[in-house]
Task: structure prediction
Amino acid sequence: MKDVIDDLEKVFILHNKKDYVLPYKVSLRWGDKHTEETRGRINAMPGYVGGDTNIAGIKWIGSGPQNPMKYDLPRASALIILNDAEKMLPLAIMDGTIISAMRTGGVTGTATKYLARPDSKIAGIIGAGTQNRTQIMAIKTVMPKLSKVKVYDLYLERSKRFAVEVSEELGIEVVPVLSAEEAIRDTDIIVTATTAKEPIVKAEWIGEGCFYSHVGGHEAEFDVISKANKIVVDDWEQIKHRGTQTLAIMHEKNEMKDENIYAEIGDIITQKKKGRENETEFIYFNGVGMALEDIIVANRIYSKALENGVGTVLELWDKPIWI
Ligand SMILES: NC(=O)c1ccc[n+]([C@@H]2O[C@H](COP(=O)([O-])OP(=O)(O)OC[C@H]3O[C@@H](n4cnc5c(N)ncnc54)[C@H](O)[C@@H]3O)[C@@H](O)[C@H]2O)c1
Result:
């Protein structure tokens, strides 16, 4: 996770310098955007990362929200293809499921480092799925004093299993709680990563000095965001285009203006804007997720695989024809 967070800081700096190419995500779905949380969808996420990374690629990621309960399979499953940015030829085809979950955690880890109180000890999370596992892993990486996590899920069995596995893995206390309110009240850091169809988080549950990383779709009431002293995002244009998260819905309803966004995370890492300035401000962060994040992590793993002779060499052609 430490390596992932280092990759992400680097990619947010490149993003800030505009040394990237990032077309909007294409969503293959079987109805309007609300069907994503019921029927599912597959997203195509291409991108090019500049700097000394200089690599292009695409993540093709399916989401079947019914998978964990109905089939005992993960909600998200992804493949990543990396391409040489000079010849444009494919370099590698790899699993993207774990990379995607790790980078989503890493994005919150990076934001937490700059936006949460450095003495944060208690996290409250909603959703006992894949994403929140890597969210906690990342928060623990940047906030070594983190000692307790409260987790709420619609299904108590899932939060109980999550608590046992994550506390064992990270050596911190993880407690399943019986309501979203109990998870959120009296915490330093909040994360929501659910497949909820309606907002869950209420403004009155959030205390002074809190940091909230919003990972899922429409999980917070509008008042939560209006209460924030600072609203920070990964990429505002991408959030608006994707249209599924609370900030984008507020914008669509004319309740969020471009000027209400305080900064993109790259502005804070590059010190163009200040991160946390005092102990009391409530900072809200929303990452929509960018292909650049997947590509930079995938590229590091690809390089390691080459170094270690790991992987299977595919022969697409014996020799090229019809040149
Ligand atoms: N922003 C990003 O970059 C990014 C990246 C990956 C995933 N996501 C989003 O994160 C969310 C979670 O993904 P995941 O892979 O962990 O899914 P998952 O299916 O593994 O876990 C989701 C959990 O949410 C719980 N849940 C659903 N509705 C709830 C509610 N109302 N209250 C409490 N719990 C509820 C489910 O029971 C389940 O345990 C998805 O919406 C996904 O699209 C965002």
About this structure: Residues 97-115 form the longest helix (19 residues).
